[in-house]
Design brief:
141 residues
């Protein structure tokens, strides 16, 4: 099993398991009992965001800082360093996902052009064509 698939199972809500996933999860936890406390931690973190409860976030961070899982302890300290932004992410429904998606798209377009094309070519690939924009608005009317 791929680690990514195991991580998905660890963060999956218990009532969302298919019978096949439940069998796989049972086999995983039988082979590695340390996964059960990790699952508890992952589900608690997930619940913080699902309930938008900043107080629960602070409690989660304090609990994880005393954890025996080193990478999670470092993660908790990292969250604490930027607690204002993390609290805002928990409490608000706003996201910069759309902005990040556009930045990712622009970088994907720009990367293969690096060193070969100038700004004019980049602009032509990124911005909509006036001809296409005009015809699209006429067709949608």
């Amino acid at each position: 099993m791929a680690p990514k698939h195991a991580a998905f199972l660890m963060a999956q809500a218990p009532d969302k398991f298919t019978p096949e996933q439940q069998k796989l999860f049972d086999r995983l936890t039988e082979c590695c009992p340390d996964l059960l406390p990790l699952r508890k931690i992952a589900l608690a973190f997930r619940d913080v965001f699902a309930t938008a409860d900043a107080v629960a976030l602070f409690g989660w961070i304090q609990e994880i800082k005393r954890s025996r899982f080193g990478p999670l302890v470092r993660f908790a300290y990292g969250l604490q360093k930027d607690i204002v932004a993390v609290t805002a992410a928990v409490e608000t429904e706003w996201s910069n996902g759309q902005t990040e998606g556009q930045i990712n798209r622009l970088k994907a377009i720009k990367r293969p052009m690096y060193g070969r094309a100038g700004f004019a070519q980049l602009r032509a690939r990124v911005l909509p064509s006036p001809v296409l924009t005009t015809s699209a608005s006429v067709n949608s009317s």
